[in-house]
Design goal:
The chain is an alpha+beta fold and 127 residues long. 43% of the residues lie in helices and 31% in strands. It folds into two domains: 10-46; 51-126, ACT-like. Chain A, domain 2 (Alpha-Beta Plaits, 2-Layer Sandwich). Helix 1 crosses helix 2.
Length: 127
């Protein structure tokens, strides 16, 4: 089996260790493999979207990155039917977008948030 090295900051490593224990994984590698399997499965599902899509896009970020969210949001105003912004804890913000539109554009807005390192969580739920 090939070996892949990754670098994690202390916060993520601590979260990984908590997940490992609470979910019963035998080690960090097993937990990371499970996470990668989930990520691959979700991406496959998104890549198979076609036609008109109704979805909810959830984004969590630090409030100092509101301008980044606004920039992405403005590029996709034709998709967004509802947008909710809420402070959830300390400096963290949650953005909830209700989206209706072409599957390719829905995938693009999702990817734009996902590839931005300033976003903590990005989750697309198709309806």
């Amino acid at each position: 089996m090939p070996i892949v090295s990754i670098s994690l900051n202390q916060e993520i490593l601590s979260e990984l260790d908590k997940l490992q224990k609470t979910m019963g994984f035998s080690g960090r590698s097993e937990a990371i493999r499970a996470g990668i399997r989930t990520f691959v499965s979700e991406e496959k599902q998104k890549s198979q979207l076609t036609g008109n899509v109704h979805a909810i896009l959830l984004v969590v970020h630090n409030d100092e990155f509101d301008h980044v969210v606004s920039g992405i949001k403005h590029n996709f105003e034709d998709l967004i039917t509802t947008h909710l912004h809420s402070k959830i804890e300390g400096e963290k913000c949650m953005e909830l977008f209700v989206i209706d539109g072409d599957a390719e554009r829905v995938s693009t807005i999702t990817k734009d948030f996902q590839v931005n390192k300033n976003m903590d969580t990005v989750k697309l739920v198709t309806l």
